[in-house]
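RECORD TYPE: inverse folding
INPUT: structure tokens
STRUCTURE:
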């Protein structure tokens, strides 16, 4: 569950932006009615923080954060936002995540990017004077998180973004949020009327060492509304966007393997939408995948060439539906412990029953029964690999996140914070951490990125290897392929995890 906090709109020419009507949307709701309905879908009793004066609002928010037993979603009350964007923000695994918009990079008359004369390490912090979408550009963001934030009193080094409004804070960071709000309330006299409440909160969180991740709008909509003209424009723009397509695209995992990305996910999402719209549950799709896997094993067990080809086709579609069940869950928002257990358990069952089918078929075809040694070796290797995967994942989840440097909220600029971040960067660039960082950076090259994905021999590549080698050759070739590739994957994976554990 998520605790929703609606933040009263900042002072402006329109004192009641929540009453503005979104005529182009179904039912022509007001801004407040639409956001209120979205908030109720997450929290039966959303909190509302009225912006009478800044200090009072901050103390009220601190009270909410202190009593929260779940994560918090902060939303300006004059927000117009897609449901899918709210879902993506609240389901992020970061300790805190903010929606941002980056300031367009300056370009010359030829359209080339203008490179600043002074490198950022030597740049002087400034009080940002530019604005974007009605908000002051007073945040510096990197590739994945907010680096620093400024205010009317606090200078920031080369600001390049605005914090649009939605901010999600995890349960573990709720006490920090409460502490930040109380400290900011004591400093309220330093801030200007243009300082946005969310901007101030992120300013405090970052200075307390909280890693605040960033997300752009991408193919979804968000805007704050202050006038009827803005409301009309926003409703028209939102109605022209395909939220369902964005939701469907987001149902596909973004970090899948090469085979899954290019030979399954290109079309499996449409099967998932078809299934979801007809009421099929993820568990029912999982059962289809299991049935296809068992049918593939039965075909392999015939030992005939036609049976081997049919088995290869069936094991491919068993994997397709294995992907579809997760996509249905994410698209239809149908998650459950049973479904997760079924998916993880029967992935292994399908592999192992196929191993048995291949071995039986090899013997039936008149070959040596020594094939069982290869089959058991492949099963043992894969079992050990899965055991290592799950045990490392469990241990890694218990590992506390690496702390970020902090600096007092009263510091007039972010020089000390940036120096501390630079020292941290240097420290993390030596020894084992340095090697891991270099290997991580190499991922920007597409060939290296996909090579790293494939070398670990994920399930998509394993099923593809089984389907292709069984259809074209025989079970012996299949098992030898699984053992060689699986051994390389095991060595690579164990080496990487040992290094990460020591880093």
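DESIGNED SEQUENCE:
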């Amino acid at each position: 569950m998520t605790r929703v906090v609606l933040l009263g709109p900042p002072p402006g020419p329109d004192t009641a932006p929540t009453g503005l009507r979104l005529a182009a949307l179904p039912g022509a709701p007001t801004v407040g009615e639409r956001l209120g309905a979205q908030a109720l879908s997450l929290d039966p009793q959303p909190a509302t923080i009225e912006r009478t004066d800044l200090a009072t609002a901050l103390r009220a928010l601190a009270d909410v954060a202190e009593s929260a037993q779940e994560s918090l979603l902060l939303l300006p009350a004059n927000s117009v936002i897609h449901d899918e964007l709210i879902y993506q923000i609240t389901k992020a695994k970061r300790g805190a995540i903010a929606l941002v918009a980056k300031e367009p990079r300056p370009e010359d008359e030829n359209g080339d990017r203008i490179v600043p004369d002074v490198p950022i390490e030597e740049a002087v912090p400034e009080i940002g004077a530019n604005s974007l979408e009605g908000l002051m550009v007073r945040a510096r963001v990197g590739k994945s998180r907010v680096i620093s934030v400024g205010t009317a009193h606090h200078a920031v080094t080369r600001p390049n973004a605005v914090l649009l409004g939605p901010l999600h804070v995890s349960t573990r960071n709720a006490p920090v949020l409460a502490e930040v709000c109380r400290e900011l309330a004591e400093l309220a006299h330093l801030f200007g009327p243009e300082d946005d409440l969310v901007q101030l909160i992120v300013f405090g969180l970052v200075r307390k060492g909280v890693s605040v991740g960033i997300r752009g709008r991408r193919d979804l909509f968000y805007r704050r509304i202050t006038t009827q003209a803005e409301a009309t424009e926003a409703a028209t723009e939102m109605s022209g966007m395909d939220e369902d397509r964005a939701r469907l695209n987001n149902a596909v995992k973004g970090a899948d393997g090469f085979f899954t990305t290019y030979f399954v996910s290109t079309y499996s999402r449409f099967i998932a939408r078809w299934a979801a719209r007809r009421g099929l549950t993820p568990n029912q799709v999982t059962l289809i995948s299991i049935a296809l896997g068992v049918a593939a094993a039965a075909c392999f067990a015939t030992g005939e060439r036609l049976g081997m080809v049919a088995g290869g086709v069936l094991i491919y579609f068993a994997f397709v539906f294995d992907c579809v069940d997760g996509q249905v869950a994410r698209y239809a928002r149908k998650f459950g412990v049973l479904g997760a257990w079924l998916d993880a358990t029967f992935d292994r069952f399908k592999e192992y029953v196929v191993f048995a089918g291949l071995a039986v078929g090899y013997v039936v075809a008149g070959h040596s029964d020594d094939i069982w040694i290869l089959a058991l070796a492949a099963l043992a290797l894969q079992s050990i690999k899965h055991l290592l995967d799950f045990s490392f994942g469990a241990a890694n989840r218990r590992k506390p996140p690496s702390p970020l440097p902090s600096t007092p909220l009263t510091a007039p600029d972010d020089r000390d914070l940036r120096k501390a971040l630079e020292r941290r960067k240097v420290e993390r660039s030596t020894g084992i951490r340095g090697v891991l960082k270099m290997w991580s950076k190499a991922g920007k090259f597409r060939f290296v990125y996909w090579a790293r994905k494939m070398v670990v021999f994920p399930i998509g590549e394993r099923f593809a290897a089984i389907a292709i080698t069984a259809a074209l050759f025989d079970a012996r070739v299949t098992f030898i392929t699984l053992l060689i590739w699986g051994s390389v994957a095991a060595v690579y994976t164990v080496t990487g995890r040992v290094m990460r554990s020591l880093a």
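NOTES: The radius of gyration is 27 Å.
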